[in-house]
UniProtKB/TrEMBL annotation:
<dbReference type="InterPro" id="IPR005829">
    <property type="entry name" value="Sugar_transporter_CS"/>
</dbReference>
<feature type="transmembrane region" description="Helical">
    <location>
        <begin position="21"/>
        <end position="39"/>
    </location>
</feature>
<keyword id="KW-0813">Transport</keyword>
<feature type="transmembrane region" description="Helical">
    <location>
        <begin position="171"/>
        <end position="192"/>
    </location>
</feature>
<dbReference type="GO" id="GO:0015145">
    <property type="term" value="F:monosaccharide transmembrane transporter activity"/>
</dbReference>
<keyword id="KW-0472">Membrane</keyword>
<feature type="transmembrane region" description="Helical">
    <location>
        <begin position="427"/>
        <end position="451"/>
    </location>
</feature>
<feature type="transmembrane region" description="Helical">
    <location>
        <begin position="289"/>
        <end position="313"/>
    </location>
</feature>
<feature type="transmembrane region" description="Helical">
    <location>
        <begin position="113"/>
        <end position="130"/>
    </location>
</feature>
<dbReference type="InterPro" id="IPR020846">
    <property type="entry name" value="MFS_dom"/>
</dbReference>
<feature type="domain" description="Major facilitator superfamily (MFS) profile">
    <location>
        <begin position="26"/>
        <end position="481"/>
    </location>
</feature>
<keyword id="KW-0762">Sugar transport</keyword>
<dbReference type="InterPro" id="IPR044778">
    <property type="entry name" value="MFS_STP/MST-like_plant"/>
</dbReference>
<protein>
    <recommendedName>
        <fullName>Major facilitator superfamily (MFS) profile domain-containing protein</fullName>
    </recommendedName>
</protein>
<dbReference type="InterPro" id="IPR036259">
    <property type="entry name" value="MFS_trans_sf"/>
</dbReference>
<dbReference type="InterPro" id="IPR045262">
    <property type="entry name" value="STP/PLT_plant"/>
</dbReference>
<keyword id="KW-0812">Transmembrane</keyword>
Length: 508
């Protein structure tokens, strides 16, 4: 055990909890699902900029990037639907998989759902790295997408339910921190494998994803399921044993009683309606449902994944040579990791809203500047940025990535995972992942085509969305810092200026 006793006020009672070794290890092992997700996000951009990979699977793109006799707009060299499908197929599969993952998560628990994710990741990595045809390559990406769907369904819930209230935000953000580490590792691996002799570095890049996949699988075998999930499935005695273990104290009765009450309310709700998905539309459950949907839409329309998916391709488009483009992607990946640590430190001190609002200003300014630089310096057939402007673009991209990494990145997962009541928590997680994957797929499948048609204005397009989501935050996203997960209705929704009107009556 480590640390002292943390007491979380809960309407006159206190939940005692130590920061135990069991909690830390469980959270670290579970968050490797984020490591795998991040690696999959980061690896595709570097791989698709490798000449041998393009030559083997996308020869028409290879010709456009290498044939100097062809007059091809700098913004359009990588505009190819099949190439975009290589990236986006993962997210389309994740979108479908999360529908299946929801009942698995509810009936078998968080632990088994994470184990299934690990299995999909291991098999998908094998198919991707050994592929000899585009069909097998896409099959591998689809299997990886199934892993993403299962992992993103279970891991944020696991982290929110197992963490002590006072540090729930920081531990939950381990998932996002591992995503950023995964992206950085992918960029570093791509940088080294791009220099390999024989041109098969892309296979090493894709195969390296097997390491976090195996870690997630092993971690899922080792960890205990959450007390909330165990109670929900009828294992009440064992749930209390696990709660004592992860809290490091014997006096867990107040917290355990609250979990039992939440489970009882969930079972009663199932008897009254087609829960849990039907319960999402019940009036008093609409606030977290609406916020979860909009946060996923907004998270993707910041433009972050357009940059993370295609960072090397994007930098190549802007006039960086291949080595420089991969190097710049490594820099942005490192900024991503460091900035997520900022969120880990401040999320339970400053709160969720402060981070979201500050980042809105920073993201808006950086994207407006990038668009202005590209309008001035990057024309259809001229991409000579010059050292000064190239440096400015990298700085602005880093400024954008850093602000996203301590705000909409981790909080887009944290806030939905902590605000749904137990009766709709797995369904809410399913909807959260489904919407996130849907819009991730749309951005991945369309970004290179949008870049070709909108050119520099694509960054202004995303900045307009940043302005909109900042207004949404000001008026509609409540503060959930230090609120016990089973008390959101009483202490958050019933006190919010707008959402309290949905709490005027609790429907039977």
């Amino acid at each position: 055990m480590a640390g002292g006793i943390i007491t979380s006020a809960s309407g006159g009672t206190h939940f005692e909890a130590k920061i135990t070794f069991a909690v830390i290890i469980s959270c670290i092992m579970a968050a490797t699902g984020g490591l795998m997700f991040g690696y999959d996000i980061g690896i595709s951009g570097g791989v698709t900029s490798m000449p041998r990979f393009l030559q083997d699977f996308f020869p028409e793109v290879y010709v456009k990037t290498k044939d100097t006799r062809r007059k091809e707009s700098n913004y359009c060299k990588y505009d190819n639907q099949n190439l975009q499908l290589f990236t986006s197929s993962l997210y389309l599969a994740a979108l479908v998989a999360t529908i299946v993952a929801s009942p698995v998560n509810r009936t078998l628990g968080r632990k088994q759902t994470m184990l299934a994710a690990g299995f999909f990741f291991v098999v998908g990595t094998g198919f991707s790295s050994l592929a000899r045809s585009l069909f097998i390559l896409i099959i591998g990406r689809v299997l990886l997408g199934c892993g993403v769907g299962f992992a993103n369904q279970a891991v944020p819930l696991f982290l929110s339910e197992i963490a002590p209230t006072r540090i729930r935000g920081a531990l939950n953000i381990l998932f996002q921190l591992n995503i950023t580490i995964g992206i950085l590792l992918a960029n570093l691996v791509n940088w080294f494998t791009s220099k390999m002799q024989g041109g098969n570095g892309w296979r090493v890049s894709l195969g390296f994803g097997g390491i976090p996949a195996i870690l997630l699988t092993i971690g899922s075998i080792i960890v205990e399921d959450t007390p909330n999930s165990l109670v929900e499935r009828g294992f009440e005695e064992y749930a209390k044993v696990v709660l004592k273990k992860i809290r490091g104290v014997d006096n867990v009765d107040p917290e355990f009683e609250e979990i039992l009450n939440a489970s009882k309310a969930a079972r009663e709700a199932k008897g009254r309606r087609s829960a849990p998905f039907g319960g999402l539309l019940v009036r008093h459950n609409r606030p977290p449902f609406i916020i979860a949907i909009f946060m996923q839409v907004f998270q993707q329309f910041t433009g972050i994944n357009a940059i993370m998916f295609y960072a090397p391709v994007l930098f190549s488009t802007l006039g960086f040579h291949s080595d420089a483009s991969l190097y710049s992607a490594v820099i942005t990946g490192a900024v991503n990791v460091v900035s997520t640590l900022v969120s880990v430190y401040f999320v339970d001190k400053l709160g969720r809203r402060v981070l979201l609002l500050e980042a809105g200003v920073q993201m808006f300014v950086s994207q407006m500047v990038i668009g202005a630089v590209l309008m001035k310096k990057v024309q259809d057939y001229s991409d000579d940025l010059g050292k000064g402007y190239a440096f400015l673009v990298v700085v602005m991209v880093c400024m954008f990535v850093s602000s996203f990494a301590w705000s909409w990145g981790p909080l887009g997962w944290l806030i939905p995972s902590e605000t749904f009541p137990l009766e709709t928590r797995s369904a809410g997680a399913s909807v959260t992942v489904f919407v996130n994957m849907l819009f991730t797929f749309l951005i991945a499948q369309s970004f290179l085509s949008m870049l070709c048609r909108m050119k520099f204005a694509i960054f202004w397009f995303f900045s307009a969305w940043v302005l909109l989501m900042s207004l949404f935050t000001i008026f509609l996203i409540p503060e959930t810092k230090n609120v016990p997960i089973e008390e959101m209705q009483e202490r958050v929704w019933k006190r919010h200026w707008f959402w309290k009107r949905f709490m005027d009556r609790i429907e039977d």
